[in-house]
Prior knowledge:
Layout: H1 13-27, H2 34-41, H3 45-52, H4 55-79, H5 84-99, H6 109-117, H7 122-149, H8 158-178, H9 182-197
Amino acid sequence: MKRSRGRPRQFDEAQALEAAGNVFWVNGFSATSLDDLAVAMGMNRPSIYGAFGDKEALYRRTLQQFGARMEAAMMDALDGQSDVRKALLSFYLAALGVYMSGPQAKGCLVMGTAVTASVSHPEIQADLLAVIKTIDKRLEKRFREGVSSGDLPCDFDAPSRALLAQSILHSLSLRARAGDTKSNLDKLIRSGVKLVLS
Length: 198
């Protein structure tokens, strides 16, 4: 029987990116080696280069994957409640569920790792700013909908409150990664909703 030759090794791209993302999430961009990634992804270094490019390109792909998942969850949370207060509460709780997932809370992959990497990597900085702007716009849109529906006063400053709302999101990520308790973060969420929408 003739054996086929030259057939590329099959792998699940989404799973490989998930595995790489988990390594970056724990170690950060700079401290993660290609050997670390190869072990986690179950791929050798040439295969990683062939499929994803260099370490920075792979890292950026993991940020894209994580960002897409978080954006979908954000949309579900913000659009799943007709009341804007319940929507914002759901948004924060959904994010906290991700930030505290796993045996050790890691916070947000993007905010926890891209902030430091962005200083010396302009493309990562651009990715980070794009994520921040996307969240700003989505929160602002939901607040404008709240004004239109009468949930929020007509003079509610949607753009500024969106920035404030996102700053609370960043605080949740930082505090989760620092080891703060779920109980404390839950209190921060509920106080944050009141502050943003007051």
